[in-house]
Amino acid sequence: MQTLQVGLTGGIGSGKSTVAQLLAQRGAAIVDADRIARDVTAPEGAAIDAIRVAFGAEFIDASGALDRLKMRALAFESPDARAQLEAIVHPLVGLQSQIQARAAAASGCPLVVFDIPLLAESGLWAKRLNAVVVVDCDAETQIARVAQRSGLAPEVVEKIIHSQATRQHRRSTADIVIFNGRHRSLAELASDVHDLATWFGL
């Protein structure tokens, strides 16, 4: 049986992680790009030496990990710095993602879901996948959700949203769109994911 490879993406606060969890409950293998990125920038992670060379020791914290707050501030202010960081981290994330996907396929898993926040921003992923699923909602909902769960000021959340792909561009990459607006309940979202999983053969 062929293992399907599906990309899952959505803007911050869209509910993408919840959709991934629901798919995992149905038996999908989840390859979490954010988690891999955290691993390669953790103490002794594969990206640390290159980050130290590119940005300086001040961007490595006392534990030996990437100083995320300092790097996030720099990346927001400097597109060049952000691109430089991505050039270090993204190939490592891609390599580890493929290793995890091959292991899932070898175990007989029928569906591998690549949870990739920046899928729409990358031109690399879509051609490797059987389908792309986008979890979509309006910016006002994103701001309200993220501000509530993280305590970030709305203007900070808005800045994060503007640093990501536009809603229109993200939707243009989709084969399937799941709308998860402010007034949708978890039960309604779960019903959509049930239908999606069934369609993918889970």
Characterization of the model:
- Helix content is 52%, strand content 13%.
- With 202 residues, it is an alpha/beta fold.
- The chain has a five-stranded parallel sheet with strand order 2-3-1-4-5, sandwiched between helices.
- Helix 4 crosses helix 5 and helix 6 packs across helix 7.
- The radius of gyration is 17 Å and the shape is globular.
- 30% of the residues are buried.
- The mean pLDDT is 91.
Q: How many beta-strand runs?
A: 5
Written as H for each helix and E for each strand, in order along the chain, the element string is EHEHHHHEEHHHEH
Percentage of residues in helical conformation: 40-55%
* Strand order in the sheet with the most strands: 2-3-1-4-5
Structural class: alpha/beta
Reconstruct the topology from this structure.
Blueprint (H helix, E strand, L loop, with lengths): L3 E7 L5 H10 L3 E4 H8 L7 H8 L12 H10 L1 H28 L4 E5 L15 E6 L2 H12 L3 H10 L3 H6 L3 E4 L6 H14 L3
Parallel strand pairs: 1-3, 1-4, 2-3, 4-5
Helix pairs in contact: 2-5, 4-5, 6-7
Task: Please describe the structure with a list of short key phrases separated by commas or semicolons.
single chain, about 200 residues, alpha/beta, five-stranded parallel β-sheet, 5 strands, about 50% helix
Outline:
The chain is an alpha/beta fold and 202 residues long. The protein has helices spanning 16-25, 33-40, 48-55, 68-77, 79-106, 139-150, 154-163, 167-172, 186-199; strands at residues 4-10, 29-32, 111-115, 131-136, 176-179.
